[in-house]
Amino acid sequence: MTNIEQFLQMVKESDNIVFFGGAGVSTESGIPDFRSVDGLYNQKYDYPPETILSHSFYIKYPEEFYRFYRDKMLCLDAEPNITHKKLAELEAAGKVKAVVTQNIDGLHQLAGSKRVLELHGSVHRNYCRKCGKGFDAEYVRDYPGKVPLCDACGGTIKPDVVLYEEGLDQQTLEDAVFYISHADMLIIGGTSLAVYPAAGLIDYYRGNKLVLINKSTTPMDARADLLIQAGLGDVFGQIEV
């Protein structure tokens, strides 16, 4: 039995699956990965992306932050790919109980997934730092000035994404721990498992069906019950719900 056949058999036998995904889930929708060879870290800006996407940089240089953010992080034309769609189908069939994602693009919801835990927030939620009014991603993208301002009070708008130097939302983390610790199958896909505290979440899994699907090696490969080094679309495309 091949690794993929083994994976399909596991999915068939499981009815409490949690999927934990990173940037590799969305690269097949045309959204650039942070760390891959052609990813964001190799783009030419005055500062490295990790610096630009930090809380202190956003506060100090909002114009430069938004130039990068609009250019690289707001991929509003992207469509869900086969992985997003299959996960939504598996949830509708009662098999997937939650999707835990490090992505901020909202593609899981667009594909139809209902229980999505966004560890790093979402580009689709933005708020005024002064009065708290909420704005959608289109408002931020289409705002005529360099830094989007609140149409109610003139305050600066901040995306509801977790920047470097900021902590993760405690409730989202607790929910992720709950679902992962109760799962009979944990599928990890498209993540380097290098970013903490998110990567530490797999420590809460207690089952024996830990599947790791990633094109490149990760620090957690030895812990997987099943390791598949392939693109997510190639694997999920074979699931029949």
Main CATH class of one domain: Alpha Beta
Helix content: 25-40%
In what order do the strands lie side by side in the largest sheet?
Answer: 3-2-1-7-8-9
Average pLDDT, to the nearest integer? 93
Looking at this structure, what is the CATH superfamily of one domain?
Answer: TPP-binding domain
Query: How large is the radius of gyration?
Result: 18 Å
Class inferred from helices and paired strands = alpha/beta
Strand content: 15-25%
Q: What is the strand tally? A: 9
> What's the architecture of one domain, going by CATH?
3-Layer(aba) Sandwich
Low-pLDDT parts are none
Helix segment count?
9
The H/E string reads HEHHHHEHEEEHEHEEEH
Please give the largest β-sheet.
6 strands, parallel
Q: End-to-end distance, in Å?
A: 20 Å
Q: What would you note in describing this structure?
A:
The protein is an alpha/beta fold and 241 residues long. The chain has a domain at 1-31 and 75-120 and 167-241: TPP-binding domain (Rossmann fold, 3-Layer(aba) Sandwich), CATH 3.40.50. 30% of the residues lie in helices and 17% in strands. It contains nine helices and nine strands. It has helices at 3-13, 49-52, 55-60, 62-73, 82-92, 107-111, 137-142, 170-182, 232-236; strands spanning 17-21, 96-101, 116-118, 121-128, 134-135, 157-161, 185-189, 210-213, 226-228. The strands form two sheets. The chain has a six-stranded parallel beta sheet with strand order 3-2-1-7-8-9, sandwiched between helices. A hairpin with a 5-residue loop joins β4 (121-128) and β5. The longest helix has 13 residues, at 170-182. The protein is elongated, with a radius of gyration of 18 Å. The chain starts with a helix and ends in a 5-residue tail after the last helix. The mean pLDDT is 93.
